TrEMBL record:
Keywords, alphabetical: Coiled coil
InterPro entries to which the protein is assigned, alphabetical: CDK5RAP3 (IPR008491)
Stated name of the protein: Cdk5 activator-binding protein
A UniProt-annotated Pfam family: CDK5RAP3
Organism: Aedes albopictus (Asian tiger mosquito)
Family: Belongs to the CDK5RAP3 family.
Length: 505
């Protein structure tokens, strides 16, 4: 085989070592390239206006092969400075010719070209590709974040609507709607109390079991009389009037008094004068001496024989004749005030007792139902001493238990609990209002974040798109430089084919 037909394969990553080992370039070439780069920087400050030069110098790292193209262009722009000996008088041409001369000394240009090629292959092209991939990944993560925010927004919005539904409000003006909703609480409680009458059979069954007709007093009262006032429950008669504690709600934020000022209340604008020196004047006594000596006290004891004067007291006079009116103990026909003015289901104390009696009745019915469903019923009945009970079976007990569950679920519903807490604690309005507003604020924040993420997604994708032309240009320049190096080395070895391997572009 002819030697000219044997290709020269060189790994691109080891090109510089190959050139040094073949003594094509000096191993200390990097010490001389600094002077050349300095001269190129100076020469670029004085360049003629030419479209070819602008296009050539745009975004490119100037190397030896660029310098050759620049000189070709200067031969046209600086043609009028050429003398009869073929030399150019232009300083621009002289500068660039000097640069070429320095490049060609010891094949310095080939070493620099090999360095640029390796840098582009190993760093520039992979670095730009990594940036593009990174921007695409950031865009995908931003889109995923938008989807997560949308799901979270739907969850929080669902919680907001669920809570509004529990409270029975629309959510347009939260505080005002809650205050208005409290006004519906009495009717709701009366409706619940109306269902308690269905528990009479269960109450009687439990009473027979205990042998105590006074058990479950609150349930008995509500079942027979309805949701009356606590006063009527305690004294077994309705009051003449009811003075329920007023419910005060702050629809606006309270204005705090300036620090250091003490409000003593409204005194009608009049100042209280404690005297010139702040002393209390007990009145003048004209410097008179106070005589504390007391003589004998006359208690008006009757003397002997005074009884005959008709002044003795007759203790046998009746109340009617004396005109003295004796009032009752204060309960009959009285005024319901304070906690006694609340209804049984509304009073915090008696509401809790009402619920406890429901749970007590429920526990009894569940136990009795379990006993009836047990195989050894005779033994259970003898042990629990329930043989004297009125006739009842599993079906009737199940019905009683379901009626108790209905009352319990109604009195313990979310809406009733919220309204009861609002009525008896003005701060609970602030708690609910704050809770709902926090959810709305969270939704708004998620929307703003999603909007920002969407803008970032567009920006990331645009930055990736903007880098693609740069990547294409660097690849094109690298391939061109690779071909120039292969051609230059080929000339040195009798035009043998040179292949730079490992240039994965």
């Amino acid at each position: 085989m002819n030697e000219a037909d044997i290709p020269i394969d060189i790994h691109a990553g080891k090109l510089q070592d190959w050139l040094v080992s073949r003594r094509i370039v000096n191993k200390n070439w990097h010490l001389n390239v600094r002077d050349v780069r300095s001269k190129i920087s100076s020469a670029l400050t004085d360049m003629p206006a030419h479209d070819g030069l602008v296009q050539l110098l745009k975004g490119a790292h100037i190397n030896y092969f660029h310098c050759q193209q620049i000189i070709d262009i200067l031969k046209m722009t600086e043609a009028d400075t050429k003398n009869v000996f073929g030399r150019y008088g232009s300083q621009r041409m002289k500068d660039w010719q000097e640069i070429l001369r320095l490049y060609e000394k010891d094949s310095l240009y080939l070493a620099e070209a090999a360095q640029i090629l390796v840098r582009n292959i190993n760093y520039e092209v992979p670095g730009i590709r990594k940036q593009i991939k990174n921007f695409e990944q950031l865009a995908e993560e931003a889109e995923k974040k938008i989807e997560d925010l949308k799901r979270s927004e739907n969850v929080v919005l669902g919680e907001y609507h669920t809570l509004c539904k529990q409270l029975g409000i629309a959510g347009d003006n939260i505080r005002q709607e809650l205050v208005v909703k409290v006004g519906e609480l009495p009717k709701m409680l009366n409706d619940i109390a109306g269902t308690v009458s269905a528990l009479k059979k269960a109450i009687e069954l439990y009473s027979a079991f205990l042998g105590n007709e006074g058990c479950l007093p609150i349930l008995r009262h509500v079942a027979s009389s309805g949701n009356t006032t606590v006063y009527e429950f305690l004294y077994s008669e309705p009051p003449l009037s009811i003075e329920e504690p007023p419910v005060k709600f702050e629809l606006k934020e309270k204005e705090q008094a300036p620090a250091g000022e003490i409000d003593f209340g409204d005194a009608g604008g009049e100042a209280i004068d404690f005297g010139d020196a702040g002393q209390i004047d007990f009145g003048a006594v004209d410097n008179a001496e106070i005589n504390l000596e007391v003589g004998d006290i006359d208690w008006g004891a009757p003397e002997e024989g005074a009884a005959q004067d008709g002044n003795e007291i007759d203790f046998n006079i009746s109340l009617e004749e004396s005109g003295i009116v004796v009032e009752g103990d204060g309960n009959a026909g009285g005024v319901a005030k304070g906690d006694e003015a609340y209804t049984v289901c509304d009073s915090p104390v008696y509401r809790e007792k009402f619920i406890n009696e429901l749970l007590e009745l429920e526990a009894f019915l569940k136990m009795r139902l379990y006993e009836l469903s047990t195989a050894d019923k005779v033994q259970i009945l003898s042990l629990t001493m329930m043989d004297n009970f009125p006739d009842h079976d599993t079906k009737s007990l199940t019905q009683m238990l379901s009626q108790v569950d209905v009352v319990y679920s109604q009195i313990n519903s979310q809406l009733i609990q919220h309204l009861h807490r609002i009525k008896h604690s003005a701060k609970y309005v602030d708690i609910l209002t704050s809770k709902l507003k926090q959810k709305l604020l969270a939704i708004d924040k998620m929307k703003d974040t999603a909007k920002l993420m969407k803008e970032k997604t567009i920006a990331f994708r645009q930055q990736g798109v903007d880098l693609k032309p740069t990547l294409a240009k660097v690849i094109e320049q690298t391939k061109t430089l690779q071909g120039q190096i292969e051609k230059d080395i080929s000339k040195r070895y009798k035009n043998r084919v040179v292949n730079l391997m490992g240039a994965n572009l």
